[in-house]
Design a protein that fits this description.
The complex is a heterodimer.
Chain A (H helix, E strand, L loop, with lengths): L16 H23 L2 H23 L4 H5 L3 H12 L6 H16 L12 H12 L1 H5 L1 E2 L14 H9 L4 H4 L2 E2 L2 H6 L6 H7 L1 H26 L6 H20 L7 H6 L3 H8 L10 H21 L6 H18 L16
Antiparallel strand pairs in A: 1-2
Helix pairs in contact in A: 1-4, 1-12, 2-4, 2-5, 4-5, 4-6, 5-6, 6-17, 12-15, 13-15, 13-16, 16-17
Chain B lengths: L28 E2 L5 E5 L9 E2 L6 E2 L4 E4 L8 E2 L4 E10 L7 E9 L19 H10 L12 H5 L1 H4 L4 E5 L9 H8 L1 H15 L3 E7 L3 H13 L5 E5 L8 H9 L14 E5 H13 L5 E7 L7 E6 L4 H7 L7 E6 L6 E2 L13 E6 L17 H5 L6 H9 L3 H6 L10 H5 L6 H69 L11 H31 L4 H27 L6 H33 L4 H64 L5 H29 L8 H27 L5 H30 L13 H24 L7 H34 L4 H24 L5 H26 L1
Parallel strand pairs in B: 1-14, 9-10, 9-12, 10-11, 13-17
Antiparallel strand pairs in B: 2-8, 3-5, 4-7, 5-6, 7-8, 13-14, 15-16, 15-17
Classes of the chains: A mainly alpha, B alpha/beta.
Chain lengths: ~350, ~900
């Protein structure tokens, strides 16, 4: 056999980018299962529909860019984008909402920038932010968990869900939609937090669903940490800064602000901390940088949730910090071996 | 087995499959005698060796066939007996697959040794002799880089070596050569370590070994039990690249080698475990480095094991020996899978640094899949042992943003390959770094060349400008002379007519007058024009620009006229005459020399080609020679005359110069210190600059001393007060340095060791001065008893003693400080007292001994200090010349080599004298 000439190293750890993405997809399964269990078939349908669209669009773009299609599709990054967007959208959002979202995510936020690895912003979050600004009605009518439906353990049937998403029979599920806890908290019209819970006895009853979903995302995140897909720095920094601010404000004015546990277990906090802020392409590079990056997200989440116009803030916070990542990188180089202190700034 | 030493950690690292078990099943086997060996002239870092055999020569096993050139180089010996059949290019183990010069020897089948003999007691040799002995044996680092071992053994000369580290980590997968060597030849290893320790005199010896070699560890421990050597075997966790020099140092000592420095700068010397056996064999058995242990492994090798192989054996022989299935072998690697190189030619020989051959199958090392896009996942960053940001470096290399790459410490990358190993996108990261490094080096090189060209261009412009001015001057001079001649003629005619009256008036007077009036006229014109301009400006008239231009022109003219006048006034000054004369003479001599050279060259060409009128040329040359000698003589005479006259002036000028230079030195030093504090990479360069300035200063001072002694050769009164002042200053410096050092020790800064060395040096200087003072003030009264026999005192040993004592004392004091309050500290205090007494005693002995040495030297009329400086300067000159030689083009090498030989001879002579007094 002819000998080949190649430079070192000659050994390589098995696996590739595709296997990293598949691990991330695997880690989303507990969250997906919890969403389906508590909120019905909607999320699963959104995820499947989004994935289908994302793969098709990614293939088309790669084809247009005259690159080998299967090589690029098997990195599964489009799939991850679709699944994350599917998990973030309201379960009964109409099909065209998801379609617009995927088109924005895959074509504008990713491929136009040069494909995987070259996008400055997280594609799923770009799409989510755009949808939230453009279609506030569809984006804020969230499904209620089955405990709040009043008819026992039943969730909206598969048929009803399908017709709500793909048909025009939106009315079939109207009875089952509600505002998210964060939304309720945001628009409580002068009630104190205490009064809010009394006023919304139903919500107090069903808040457990959101807690459970958050716990599922948390488990997925722990799995990814164990698999060393990312380091602990970003999620820990984000959750820590959010907890710190929430605790401080809650201690000062418990009537005005929700407790830190509420902040951590509602909205997209856990999904954001473990699945979106950790997107390596768009986050800071060094360990120190990731700490700043995560802490910035936590801060922005708290600020926007408390004083902003939108009930949840994870998407905006992450996009804003994506913007800062290159700057953070300049000032958070690690101290290299044999150097007294780290280099800073740019040359 | 447990460690007694705390093992530190280095950042990152990976755990690739070890694949070591395959090749440790069988003991080391002697490879059969090769029928042919190929010895590359460069198997080490540094200059390639120079062949000293010819094609057709018969050589014996162990005979030197190529000799080291320069300080960093290594001898090469025949590893078999036979006939030299070729000296020329042959494929060698190199990443690029290039050819290089090799000596090819055909075996005579006798395998006959050259006469050789080890040293019975190597401690009888002086240190330089013993190191030379090792150098003769061609020992170079066997761990991978192949750095000539003798150079590292000399490190004790100008560095203080506290720690000797033996690198037995062998962290690369597959390789088991060191492992098997330790299992089977632990005694030789310890013997080698003993020799190296004898030379470097470290305070602490450590052997760093990974915990995946339990048998080797046991063998070392067993051998250690029988030896009187005092060393620590430190077991480190298995992690690649713990065998990297910098990483092992961090693991064992917790100290980081500063970027751009060598371990010796922090008091550490590393040697590979294989090198220790080579040293042992060289010294004890007198065998040069002609064989080594090589692991032959890989899936396509049937017998995976270690062989002892003659250096120069073609790889093909080894592959046959291990029964490698050529059909299956798809990648042939020299070295390990992480940093090894692939080769495609089986005729490539084994060299001193070859530790492993991997005949890999396609399943074992499948071709790397095409690279995917970098997702900046940062896995590379987590494993980088140099704590870099590999993914950032990758983007910079890819985008050719080399400045940014450098800013991200690209040059601290050790190319270990850990980042490429973990990269999920299969990006060949190390290749990108190699590319970027090469590009940056190329750019730097081009920049240097451009700078050089610019300097040359500027110098040329300046020269042309000067020539022009000189030409102009000469023309003017001629004009003046012509005018003078004219005037003289007129004068003569006039005096003839009106009989001799006052013909002796200065001939330049009319000229001067003329010039003066010229100047006056120009000034008037200028003033007029100025007035016109102001007028125009105030009234806002047109044509201001024209006026301004005119004014400028007039200004110029006026200046010129003025200058011509002053020049003419100053020109005939008789006081300046001797000086101009001297210059003129010098240039005359130079011109004569040039002419002579030109003529000689012409003659040589003519002779060579047999054309032209050789006879005529010869006559011309003789004539020119005479002329040149005459001119030279005239110049010399003149100069001597001036010199004696100017001696007094000279010294004062020199003094001013020295003062200026001293100020410069001070400034440079403070800048350097600032740089060191901010850990700027320029510090090193600055240090070199400071040294250079200091050298210059020294030269000047020497010159001053010389000229002073010329000026007042009879003055014998010794200026002790000056010396005393100097001593006081130095004492203050020492105190300052010591307190800085203490602060560093307290803050556990890694620079402490370095500082300690600096303090030591300063103290030494202080001592020298004090001795000098004592000697000078004592000189007048009593001469030291001349009957004292030349004391045989080992100064170094005494110094060592003092430093050991000091270390012990410091340690005890530290212990005392760290003692929790309330505990009984009396025993410690007592111990410290005792130690201090011992330390003081040792110091006193040392001081006395040193003073005696200096006195002894002085009694023979040698200033030891001066001698030391001279020797150091000579050594520096040798290094410089070597460097110049290595950089020189082929055609200009000859004169450089001759020069180098002369300088080296001088340096050796000085060293020998110095050796006589300092050992």
């Amino acid at each position: 056999m002819a000998l080949i000439r190649i430079t070192s190293p000659h050994a390589h750890r098995p696996g590739n980018t595709g296997s990293v993405m598949l691990t991330v997809l695997m880690a989303t399964l507990p969250g997906l299962a919890a969403m389906t269990f508590f909120f019905g078939w909607g999320t699963l349908i959104q995820v499947l529909w989004g994935s289908l669209l994302a793969i098709a669009l990614e293939a088309a773009c790669v084809k247009l860019r005259q690159r080998p299609i299967s090589f690029y599709l098997t990195d599964y990054s489009a799939l991850v984008t679709a699944v994350l967007l599917g998990l973030a959208l309201p379960p009964f959002a109409p099909w065209w909402v998801m379609s617009v979202g995927i088109i924005v995510a895959i074509i504008i936020a990713k491929q136009l920038y040069g494909g995987m690895g070259s996008n400055p912003f997280n594609p799923a979050m770009v799409a989510y932010a755009l949808l939230l600004v453009s279609f506030p009605v569809q984006m804020t009518s969230w499904a209620g968990p089955f405990m709040m439906n009043g008819d026992g353990w039943a969730v909206v049937s598969l048929g009803d869900t399908l017709s709500a998403i793909f048909g025009t029979a939106g009315a079939a599920v109207d009875a089952h939609t509600m505002a998210t806890p964060l939304d309720i908290m945001r628009h409580r019209d002068g009630f104190t937090t205490e009064e809010m819970w009394v006023e919304n006895a139903l919500l107090a009853n069903g808040i457990g669903a959101w807690h459970a979903v958050s716990a599922a995302y948390f488990m997925g995140g722990i799995f990814l940490l164990y698999k060393k897909i990312f380091t602990w720095h970003t999620p820990v920094a984000m959750l820590a800064s959010l907890t710190l601010l929430a605790t401080l404000s809650y201690m000062l004015m418990p009537d005005q602000y929700p407790d830190p546990f509420f902040h951590l277990t509602t909205g997209a906090t856990m999904l954001g901390a473990f699945f979106i802020a950790t997107d390596p392409v768009t986050s800071a590079t060094s360990n120190k940088g990731k700490l700043w990056f995560g802490a910035g997200i936590g801060l922005l989440v708290f600020v926007i949730r408390t004083w902003g116009n939108y009930p949840d803030a994870v998407a905006f916070a992450i996009l804003l910090m994506n913007l800062c990542a290159p700057f953070i990188d300049q000032y958070t180089q690690p101290r290299s071996y044999g150097h007294a202190k780290p280099n800073r700034g740019m040359k | 087995m447990k460690n007694t030493i705390r093992v530190h950690q280095f950042h990152g690292g990976i755990h690739p499959p070890e694949n070591k078990k395959q090749s440790t099943g069988a003991p080391i086997t002697q490879a059969p005698l090769p029928s042919r060996i190929i010895l590359p002239l460069q198997q080490h870092i540094g200059l390639p060796a120079d062949p000293i055999v010819k094609v057709g020569d018969h050589v014996l096993k162990g005979q030197r066939v190529a000799e080291a050139i320069g300080r960093i180089s290594a001898n090469i010996h025949a590893s078999i007996s036979g006939t030299v059949v070729a000296i020329g290019p042959h494929p060698v183990p190199h990443m690029s697959g290039m050819d290089a010069d090799c000596i090819v020897i055909e075996s005579d089948g006798q395998d006959q040794w050259i006469e050789h003999q080890g040293l019975e007691n190597y401690t009888e040799l002086t240190k330089p002799e013993l190191i030379e002995y090792i150098r003769q044996a061609g020992v170079a680092g066997m761990g991978g880089a192949g750095f000539p071992t003798d150079v590292k053994l000399h490190l004790g000369d100008d560095h203080i070596v506290n720690t000797l580290i033996i690198n037995a980590a062998e962290c690369e997968p597959y390789i088991t050569a060191d492992d098997m060597l330790m299992r089977e030849r632990a005694d030789e290893i310890l013997g080698g370590i003993e020799i190296i320790a004898h030379l470097l005199k470290p305070l602490h010896i450590m052997v760093g070994i990974e915990d995946n070699k339990p048998q080797a560890i046991r063998a070392l421990h067993d051998a250690l039990d029988k030896s009187h050597l005092n060393l620590d075997i430190v077991i480190t966790p298995t992690k690649y690249p713990s065998g990297g020099e910098k990483q092992l140092i961090k693991l064992l000592t917790g100290v980081e080698v500063p970027s751009g420095k060598i371990p010796a700068d922090v008091g550490i010397v590393c040697q590979n475990v294989g090198t220790t056996t080579a040293v042992y064999r060289a010294v004890i058995q007198g065998e040069p480095l002609i064989s080594r242990i090589i692991t032959v492994t890989g899936e396509s090798a049937a017998h995976k094991q270690n062989y002892e192989v003659r250096i120069g054996t073609p790889i093909a022989d080894l592959l046959n020996l291990a029964n490698v299935n050529r059909q299956q072998m798809q990648r042939l690697i020299i070295g390990g899978p992480m940093m090894g190189i692939t080769v495609t030619n089986e005729q490539i020989p084994v060299i001193k640094t070859t530790n492993c051959l991997i005949a890999a199958s396609i399943n074992e090392m499948p071709p790397q899949p095409p690279a995917q896009a970098c997702i900046r996942c940062g896995m590379c960053e987590q494993v980088c042992p140099a704590e870099l940001l590999p993914q950032q470096l990758y983007w910079f290399a890819k985008g050719k943003e080399f400045e940014k790459a450098r800013h991200h410490n690209l040059f601290d990358c050790i190319e270990c390959g850990a980042c490429s190993y973990v990269c999920p996108s299969n990006i060949p990261l190390v290749q990108y770094y190699r590319f970027a490094k090469a590009e940056i080096r190329k750019e730097d090189d081009e920049q240097r060349k451009a700078d050089h060209a610019r300097l040359r261009f500027e110098a040329r412009l300046a020269r042309l400008e000067r020539d022009k001015i000189e030409k102009e001057e000469r023309r003017k001079q001629r004009a003046i002379e012509a005018a003078a001649a004219q005037a003289a003629k007129k004068d003569a005619a006039f005096s003839k007519a009106a009989s001799a009256t006052t013909s002796s008036t200065n001939t330049t007077v009319p000229d001067l007058k003329q010039l003066k009036s010229n100047a006056a006229i120009a000034r008037t014109k200028l003033r007029k024009a100025e007035k016109a301009l102001t007028n125009a400006q105030s009234k806002g008239l047109d044509g201001i620009e024209t006026l301004q231009a005119t004014l400028k022109q007039l200004q110029l003219k006026s200046d010129q006229a003025e200058k011509a006048y002053t020049d003419a006034q100053n020109a005939p000054s008789p006081i300046a005459a001797p000086e101009t004369d001297l210059k003129q003479l010098k240039s005359n001599a130079a011109i004569a020399r040039t002419k002579l050279k030109k003529a000689e060259k012409q003659l040589a060409t003519a002779e060579a080609s047999g054309e032209g009128d050789i006879e005529a040329l010869k006559t011309q040359v003789t004539a020119l020679q005479a002329k040149s000698a005459e001119a030279e003589q005239a110049y010399q005479d003149a100069e001597n005359g001036t010199n004696t006259a100017n001696a007094a002036i000279d010294t004062s000028a020199l003094e001013t110069e020295i003062a200026t230079l001293q100020a410069k030195v001070n400034k440079a030093e403070s800048a350097w210190k600032a740089a060191v504090e901010s850990a700027s990479p320029a510090a090193e360069k600055m240090a070199a600059g400071v040294d250079k300035l200091k050298d210059k200063l020294k030269d000047l001072q020497d010159e001053l001393d010389k000229s002073r002694s010329v000026a007042q050769p009879t003055v014998t009164t010794i200026d002790t007060s000056a010396l005393e002042t100097e001593i006081a200053t130095l004492q203050a410096k020492v105190n300052k340095a010591e307190s800085a050092w203490k602060a560093a020790v307290e803050s556990a800064s890694p620079a402490a060791e370095k500082m300690a060395a600096g303090v030591e040096k300063l103290k030494g200087k202080l001592k020298d001065l004090q001795d000098e003072l004592v000697q000078k003030s004592g000189n007048q009264s009593a001469q030291p008893a001349p009957d004292a026999e030349p004391a045989v005192i080992d100064l170094k040993a005494l110094k060592q003693q003092v430093s050991i004592m000091r270390t012990k004392l410091k340690k005890a004091e530290k212990q005392l400080n760290e003692l929790p309050e309330g505990e009984d500290n009396t025993p410690l205090v007592a111990e410290i007292e005792a130690l201090r007494a011992r330390h003081d005693k040792a110091k006193a002995t040392f001081d006395a001994a040193e003073a005696e040495k200096i006195a002894a030297a002085a009694s023979e009329g040698i200033d030891l200090k001066q001698l030391k400086i001279d020797a150091a300067l000579a050594r520096a000159a040798v290094t410089k010349a070597e460097r110049a030689l290595s950089k020189a083009e082929d055609d200009s090498k000859q004169p450089l080599e001759t020069e180098l030989l002369t300088i080296r001879a001088k340096a050796e002579q000085l060293n020998a004298t110095l050796e006589r007094f300092s050992n």
